[in-house]
Design brief:
The complex is a heterodimer. Chain A is an all-beta fold. Chain A has no helices and 11 strands. The N and C termini of chain A lie far apart (38 Å). The mean pLDDT of chain A is 94. The model of chain B has no long low-confidence stretch (mean pLDDT 94). In chain B, a hairpin with a 5-residue loop joins strand 7 and strand 8. Chain B is globular, with a radius of gyration of 13 Å. The relative contact order of chain B is 0.33. Chain B is built from no helices and 11 strands. By secondary structure, chain B is mostly beta strands. The chains are: A mainly beta, B mainly beta. At the A-B interface, strand 9 and strand 10 of A face strand 5 and strand 10 of B.
Chain lengths: 110, 114
């Protein structure tokens, strides 16, 4: 029973364009959502988060949008850069546990 | 400040054996969490230790256990290894724990069970 789903295993985007990564969840009790980025042979690194009381949070090139009625969040990266090529995980917090999606591999084409 | 370190980085074991993985958190961090990552799966939460006490536990069998020492270093043990235990095991540390502040991950230990 996957409570957090990232339905796109991979995404290819041209350098300079917008990358949009999507995440769906089923548990309305999640109160906090996070995005992590992972390079090969490294652990995930925190990117950006959003509380369930907000619908948008921005940090430089990264913006996370939360649509609670649709139980959907998305990460926008503008403009996309070659160094953004990585696997992106969304995670949701509930009862002091993080439930993770399976990840989306983002490939930025030059 | 040194990051989270995990040892060993790679490990090969055979079915039925047991294994111990080690995690050293960032200095000052009191919480250490462990995750299992298998291909095509997100990170699966194993357990969290905070100030030497297990604070939370995921849905894994009792073969998976852990502990935390007074210096916050943590070990994870898997007994009677199965082929399905082959995975990347990640640990993460934070000051106050999951859901309260950012978790910082180590590079992981790649366990292969033959």
């Amino acid at each position: 029973d996957q409570q957090v789903k990232q339905n796109s295993p991979s995404l290819s985007v041209q350098e300079g364009r917008i990358s949009i990564l999507n995440c769906d969840y089923t548990n309305s009790m999640f109160d906090y959502f996070l995005w992590y980025k992972k390079y090969p042979a490294e652990g995930p690194t925190f990117l950006i988060s959003i509380s369930s009381i907000k619908d948008k949070n921005e940090d430089g090139r990264f913006t996370v949008f939360l649509n609670k009625s649709a139980k959907h969040l998305s990460l926008h990266i503008v403009p996309s850069q070659p160094g953004d090529s990585a696997v992106y995980f969304c995670a949701a917090n509930s009862n002091y546990q993080l439930i993770w999606g399976a990840g989306t591999k983002l490939i930025i084409k030059p | 400040k040194a990051g989270v370190t995990q040892t060993p980085r790679y490990l090969i074991k055979t079915r039925g054996q047991q294994v111990t993985l080690s995690c050293s958190p960032i200095s000052g961090h009191r919480s250490v969490s462990w995750y299992q990552q298998t291909p095509g799966q997100g990170l699966q939460f194993l357990f969290e230790y905070f100030s030497e006490t297990q604070r939370n536990k995921g849905n894994f069998p009792g073969r998976f256990s852990g502990r935390q020492f007074s210096n916050s270093r943590s070990e994870m043990n898997v007994s009677t290894l199965e082929l399905g235990d082959s995975a990347l095991y990640l640990c993460a540390s934070s000051f106050n724990g999951i859901g309260t502040d950012t978790q910082y991950f180590g590079p992981g230990t790649r366990l292969t069970v033959l």
